[in-house]
Amino acid sequence: MTSFNQLSLAAYIKKYACLNTKTEDLWIALEEVSGQPVNKLMNSWTSQQGYPVISVKVNGGTLEFDQSQFLTSGAHGDGQWIVPLTLCVGSYESSQSYLLEEKSGWLDMEGVLDSTAADRNSTWVKLNVYQTGFYRVKYDDDLAGRLRHAIQRKELSVADRFGFLDDSFALCMARQLPLTSLLTLMVAYEEEFEFNVLSNLLDMCYKILRIVADAKPELLDSIKIFFIKLFQQSSEKLGWDPKEGESHSEALLRGEILSALAFFGHDATCKEGWRRFQAFVEDKSNPLLPPDIRRSAYVAVMRKTSVSNREDYESLLNIYRETDLSEERARILGSLPSCPDPDIVLEVLNFLLSREVRNQDAVLGLGVCQEGREVAWKWLKDNWEYISETWGTGCLITDFISDIVSPFASIAAAKEVEEFFATRTTANIARTLNQSIERIHINAELVKSIQCENDLENTVAALAQRYCHG
User: Is CB count within 10 Å lower at the N or C end of the chain?
Assistant: First the structure.
């Protein structure tokens, strides 16, 4: 059977074969064949920036939708789109489509939901099925809870598990969802083993730690306990050693999870990483530390490094100096800034400017941890003239700004950055500088929002205690 797209394109080509056309002509041709408002729909997407977030809730047997413009700043935008929604209810066999043409809309779910009240009150609803649409979804507490249970029962696809988590994190960072809700959702992923989902979850954990360090530093230890236990099952399944027949994604995931556990301070991971590192230092052919997990051991070493405990750090630098493999040097450079000792952080940053590090590799070691942030900013200012002269004509100089400046989270820090670069801004860094300063302001607002979450302390304590005694 000839498809709708084929018919539409055939009609378009026939009508405009010898004429100049505009984009709107194609939309009109598609509209004529489909009977749908294609031209109006596409204009709503091509004539404005950004994309929507669709808020959804259940009211009896009705799904109610409301759209607003998604802005990472948390501000309220005026955008409005015609949004083709997809949704499924309780299973993927009940997939539905709905065209949201106004700011708000509703869909009668009778006939889709089971007739019993119990089912109507518990059946999960997932919008943007398989994440094929260009919009985020914000569920009310009731629907979010249903989806959490669906994830724990393994009823959602990989794409939808990823999408629900990704949307929730983005909404939290934009202050549209409390951190307590996000942390509670993360519990549903403790039996997750898919690479894309877990890798995204790990990245979120790092970002949450950074923002909590500014907003509620007294909660850091408890949140780390929660994060460690969150990845316990996947860590135990993957272990330290490669397994026969495992996939490439499993090998990659092993390294990511072990590196994260070392960074979070998991004692057993740090001890095992240190043991394998020692064996590797003594014999580079030792199979205990294959390339896929070396960064994990290196992070474990750097998390324990200090001015008074630097022997392993020196050993790691020696490995860097002795190897001629660019991949190994990259692993080491990426691990060095994990150290929490500000004095070592300064040494690492100065090492990046030395002749021992290629100019194109220096940016690999800029991602210092929270404890080294102020040292890194002072170092950037002290060395800006040299950095500007060395990297100023290329694109890498923007990494020095974004990696060191963006993590700050106070208006005072933003002002200090603006004042320093007031006479030092060039066309090459202007855009990145503006984006980094904007990120500081967004971080500052997020910090204030998290500080006002009344139940955050209780939620974090309950999550940590749940794992400590579970």
Answer: N
Contacts of 98 (CB under 8 A, 6+ apart): 65, 84, 85, 86, 87, 105, 107
CA–CA gap between residue 252 and residue 274 (Å, rounded): 20
Q: Could you tell me which residues are beta bridge partners of residue 69?
A: 52, 77
Give me 469's structure tokens: 């005694």
CATH architecture of 50-177: Sandwich (2.60)
Domain locations in the chain as residue ranges = 4-45, 50-177
Specify the DSSP element, H or E, that contains 14.
helix 4-15
Q: Point out which residues pair with 108 in neighbouring strands.
A: 62
Buried b (16+ CB within 10 A) or exposed e, 114-130: eeeeeeeeebbbbbbbb
Q: Residue 362 has what DSSP assignment?
A: G
For residue range 298-349, what is the model confidence (pLDDT) as tens digits?
A: 999 999 999 999 999 999 999 999 999 999 999 999 999 999 999 999 999 9
Strands 52-59 and 96-100 come out as: unpaired
| Distance, C-alpha 298 to centroid of its chain | 23
Q: pTM of the prediction?
A: 0.90
